[in-house]
Amino acid sequence: MNNITFDNYYDELELVSGTSKHTFPTHIHQSLCIGVITKGAALLSFNNKTSILEKGSHYIIAPYQPHAITPLNGKEYSYLTICIKKDISKLCPELYKYLTKTKTLMQNTDPSSYNLQLLAQANNLSKYHFIKKFKEKIGITPYQFILNEKIKKVRQGILSKQSLADLALELGFSDQSHLCNTFKKYMGISPLQFSTAYKAH
After folding, report:
1. Which of 74-83, 124-133, 164-173 has the lowest average pLDDT?
2. Looking at domain 3-86, does it have CATH number 2.60.40.10?
3. For position 103, what pLDDT does the model report?
4. 88-196 belongs to CATH 1.10.10.60
5. Mean pLDDT score, 44-54
6. What's the longest Cα–Cα distance across the chain?
């Protein structure tokens, strides 16, 4: 059973705590994340390294740092993470410039029609070179980045009380079930669980 809560403070800081056996696939956050394992153990993978985090172990994940988290031996673990919104335009200007161009296009495009050819053309690159350069700079593939953006939009839609069926259609998921399964894969809980676990302060 995955039990995860989200406490948002002034849209600047989010406190995420949970107990889970869930494997979080490679993903990114826009925030600086600082956390601690409070029970059990998990495997944290980033920068081509995998570390065992046991009870009491701390971790720091920079904004847009691709990472994955897996329970050790499939056993339950608990964690507490503080996510702080950081201005990456100062931390990494080149990354910020590259992301901004891609994100601006995505924000001005119907989410259901996101495609790599469109993003590649906007960056004056062939599809192959765009995928290669994007992976080099961001650390994840454009497809993974698009999924991250869609999950973010699903979160926003849930909190604004949009129906899951409408969100699925709007964001280009094949159906509501596809949206729910993808959301749970990346968030560790279902959309319904998220709507009750999220608190704004």
Report:
1. 124-133
2. no
3. 65
4. yes
5. 93
6. 48
List, for residues 90-133, the tens digit of each pLDDT value. 556 666 666 666 766 666 666 666 667 777 877 787 888 888 88
Return the structure tokens found at 78.
């608990």
Instruction: Tell me how far apart the alpha carbons of residues 27 and 43 are, in angstroms, rounded to a whole number.
Output: 15
3-class secondary structure for the chain? CCEEEEEEECCCEEEEEEEECCCEEEECCCEEEEEEEEECEEEEEECCEEEEEECCCEEEECCCCCEEEEEHHHCCEEEEEEEEECCHHHHCHHHHHHHHHHHHHHHCCCHHHCCHHHHHHHCCCCHHHHHHHHHHHHCCCHHHHHHHHHHHHHHHHHHCCCCHHHHHHHHCCCCHHHHHHHHHHHHCCCHHHHHHHEEEC
10 backbone φψ class: left, alpha, beta (φ>0; ψ -120 to 50): left
CA angle, residues 120, 124, 125, in degrees to nearest 5: 55
Beta strand 198-200 with 3-9: parallel, antiparallel or unpaired? parallel
